[in-house]
Amino acid sequence: MGGLRTLALPFVVPGPCGVAVRDRLKHLTPHDEMVLRAVGEHQGALASGDLKARCADGLEHGADTWAARKRELTARSSSRIAGAITKATHDQWALARRCQAAHIQKLEAGINMLRHRLSLPVGEKGTKRAAGGYRSKSEWFRKSRRLAMLEARHAAAVAEWQAGRVRVVRGGKRLLNTRHHLAQAQLTEEQWRERWDAERWFLAADGESGKRFGNETIRVTPDGEVSIKLPVPLAHLANAPHGRYTLTTRIGFAHRGQEWADRIEANRAVAYRIHLDTQRGRWYLTASWQHPVVKTIPLEAARARGMIGVDTNADHFAAYRLDRHGNPVGDPRRFPYDLSGTAGHRDAQIRHALTRLIHWARQAGVAAIGIEDLDFTAEKTREKHGRKKRFRQLISGIPTGKLKARLVSMAAEQGLSIVAVDPAYTTLWGAQHWQKPLTTPHRKMSRHDAAGIAIGRRALGHPIRRRTAPPPHDRSDRAGHRTAQAGPGDRGREGTRPPATDHAPGGVPPSGKRKREPSASNTVRDAPSTQQWVQDSLTHTG
């Protein structure tokens, strides 16, 4: 095992701590839409100015500057709207700081890789663990120039980090860059402008426990009536007392509607956000709330009824069911998806594949799903896989972050736990130890199916190898038991094992018992020993 990196221990992933549901605001009148656009534009301008002020404060931000910004916004809106805007501003600034730190780490990884490869002789071959030298002197020269460029970028990024300077765009950098590529995006300037303005609006309000229906700014009654507290400059648009505007539409959340109704009737906090889908021309209302974090079950409890190991690939999930001893049960299952097309199509594909996986896990009767704790940050660098452009595109297309978040939330609704394991060597060792033994004329095993077994066994706490520490003398356990073997009470050891379905000889029923019991031994060699030890079924060995 020399040279292998230390593996992280499996752990049960904490469950979700929040809920978000959405419903469409149907049959809005033109006046309703005019009011929503006016409020969103006004509050969006306030949010943009507040973000500019927050970025100018940098690392010198404190409670005093926060209070000063909030007082300034309160005069132009309300105290609750000002609080929601400043909170959203701080969240956006903190996200930009985290992205800045990740960018610095990516630059450092690229610089270290370039320095390593430039230090090697030209033409030196690499290994599976480390890249070799560059192929030619011209390539070496180009990479030395790129190293200088990355070092300059790294120095600039570190200087901005130390100064507390971030680069953030309300509305999104991608949509901003789309303005220069309207033909490729199949948009006109008017369509892009409408989408850009809608993304920069601010029509959101944080929930308040103890207030009527859990929110004073955007209030939704149990019968679905939606009303908005207008900012001071737009108070003349109110059609209800106390400067409120009531929409003509009614809503009713089909998903988690009863849970939402229970919260607002108890005056518990519910946050709301109104947004416009410019492509469809539809308005939506999103309600979200938090609930106490559910304590995860112990790891041993998650392993009690076996595990389903899932290998994540670019176009499918490869899953295999294992019992609590780590033995594969049945045949592999594959859940395909297509990650091409729009973001909505990709998200739907992932959701449908996870739904089928979770339904199968419930039918199998397991309590947990084992999955790799994937992070391709180091693998996406251009410096490590420069010529392997298709490979970099492949791993960049796997939505690991969104996949883990969605799987945890969907599994929690079905009472399943998620066990995350270290992804090191799962594909390699799974193919080495499980692909060939399980391949039969009736079962086709891929290396991804074998990786699912490796992931499940690691989640169960078993080694990936089928059998470990073979006896040093002969086939009897003269030197002791194997290091990975089921306990004596797991299955009876006196009876004869029925043959496997795929390997049953002629005349032996696949799922039944043998036609005759084994005969008694007539040789001294096979006589029962007086030594006290347990010889369990080999299918239970780790």
Largest sheet strand order? 1-13-12-9-10-11
Q: Spans with pLDDT under 50 lasting ≥5 residues?
A: 511-515, 520-542
Shape field: globular
Radius of gyration: 30 Å
Class by SSE composition: alpha+beta
- The beta-strand count equals 13
Largest sheet: 6 strands, mixed
- Spatial gap, N to C terminus: 18 Å
User: Helix count?
Assistant: 14
N-to-C SSE series?
Answer: EEHHHHHHHEEEEHEEHEEEHEHHEHH
Helix % is 25-40%
> Mean pLDDT, as a whole number?
83
Percent of residues in β-strands: 5-15%
What oligomeric state is this?
single chain
Structural description of this entry:
The protein is an alpha+beta fold and 542 residues long. The protein has 14 helices and 13 strands. It has helices at residues 30-57, 63-76, 79-118, 137-163, 173-178, 182-185, 189-200, 257-265, 299-303, 343-364, 389-396, 400-413, 426-438, 447-460, and strands spanning 11-12, 18-25, 204-205, 218-220, 225-229, 244-250, 271-277, 282-290, 307-312, 316-322, 328-336, 368-372, 417-421. The protein has a six-stranded mixed sheet. It has a four-stranded antiparallel sheet with strand order 2-8-7-3. A hairpin with a 4-residue loop joins β4 (218-220) and β5 (225-229). α2 (63-76) packs across α3 (79-118), α3 (79-118) runs antiparallel to α4 (137-163) and α10 (343-364) packs across α12. The longest helix has 40 residues, at 79-118. It is globular, with a radius of gyration of 30 Å. The two termini are 18 Å apart. Residues 511-515 and 520-542 have low confidence and may be disordered.
